[in-house]
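Section handout 9: paired folding examples.
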Amino acid sequence: MPYIAVSALSHEGLIRDHNEDSLVIGPWTLCATVTESPQTLLFPLGSPCVVAVADGLGGHPAGEVASSLTVRRLAATGSGLDSEEAVRAELRVCNDTLYGAAAADPDLTGMGTTVAGLVLSGEQVLVFNIGDSQVFEILEEDGKPRLHQLSTDDSPPPPPGRRTTNIVTSTLGGTVAPREVEPHLRRLPAAPGTRYLVCSDGLTDPVPPEELAAALDGHDDGRAAFELWRAAIDAGGPDNITLALVRIDE
């Protein structure tokens, strides 16, 4: 029977004093806390399974609350996300949930989060994102891994001489007055042997794609997740680092 293997970790990095990232893998969540080592979970490839990262907005209040509310909602509803329309509607409910929580507690006003992930089922893989957390397909070229970005960054082009920008133009929540969101979505076939990387920008900002691909080379899933984390730490660990390596196998 085909199955999904997910190896994941979440870490505060070397600069931040706490972790505002959260993670969902099927019904399992890791909310604004730290894993000491990669964790690997297996699921049958059948009913929809969500794997997603939410990165609470720095410089806003309660980023860890926003990311936690988002992944808990996705964990509770993920098995019903069987179409692009269902995913789009659910992300809009997540957005409304954050604004509703902020309306009930003024200390949460302006909280927000990015979100990026996959919904994997027996027939398809739905890729979604809002913000600048990212989803990649891991391809093989001449026996070496290469990253192909599937998500669409909600960011302006970086300034000259820079590879990244810290400006995010669309998020779940993140403003005082409620605003609607328009998620990015794409549909792919669910093919055994396919691998994906879902991660927050704490991994991709300090480490360029070619170095991420090199960290994957020759390692199994758990060790590869560790090597990706170590690459971000070696680059200074300037932000929270959350990642999930996803593999469809049989």
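Moving on to protein 2 of 2.
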Amino acid sequence: MDYQKAVEAKNLLSGQLLASQHKIIRAFGLESVLETSHNLMQPPAIAGIGIGRDGLDDYHMRILLQKPLSAEEVKALMQVLEVEETDLRLVATDRIRALNGPIQTRQRPLPYGISIGHNQVSAGTLGGVVYDEGKPFWLSNNHVFANGNEATPGDAIWQPGSRDGGTAKDQVAKLARFVPIDFSGSNEVDAALAEPLDNSLISTTFPPSNPALPAITGITVPTYGMEVVKYGRTTGFTKGNIVSLTTDLPVSFGHKQAYFIDQLEIESENGSSFSQPGDSGSLILQAGTGLVVGLLFAGDGNLTFANPIAQVLKALNVTFG
């Protein structure tokens, strides 16, 4: 189908089926497609919706499923969206959660991609250095640096994170600012900044890898099929491909859930995981370049999701220098 039709179909499900699932169940009669529990930790069968591309002008709906749909349920979706079965890609996934959990050693100065976190957070990943009018800050996720809105500017940031043995003596920065996560509305980014205690702690390189990751030179616009790489606290260097530029999905943050729109969706290139818990905050680069496309923040062990980097920089009012 063409792109405009795909956008209309995605918006129909995203804006109503996911964000107001009980209303849409009554309106469309899709009780069998969704779990009706009011417990956010028991999310619906449909876990996310994105747009994939088959050819230059041929697009399809990516329906992320936490449990299989019957033939009748698939038919119901087709009728609601007014699409053909060939326009759907049903992708099995697990609960999508913010990637924060158990490289993982003390490093001075701090290269990109290593264990770091707010003193009350287990462990996440240091993304990279960004600048606000020439002043350097470290970039990662809100849920890594600001503990999912629970932190206060000035709070201690440890390297390594507490899951990796970090303690008060390992403080390397203080929380500078963050973009609040709206747990009742929609979000575009999960992002925060930390101010290094001393500029001597700053490094602008990644840990050694094969192939080596180049120095960051700027950002670029993500595209369908783009080969991307990342270096993170848990899985180190991995490769993948962007399969959707506009995925909308609910994401679990412990006992809370937030809704994100227009996120990058990435599949591993070789069947192994592109990311695992603890990789949150990793910069995602276009392979073979120093150009950043996204900030990793969530996944299910198979699929990975990232904020488009342009939105992150805009929200925090910073640049890569």
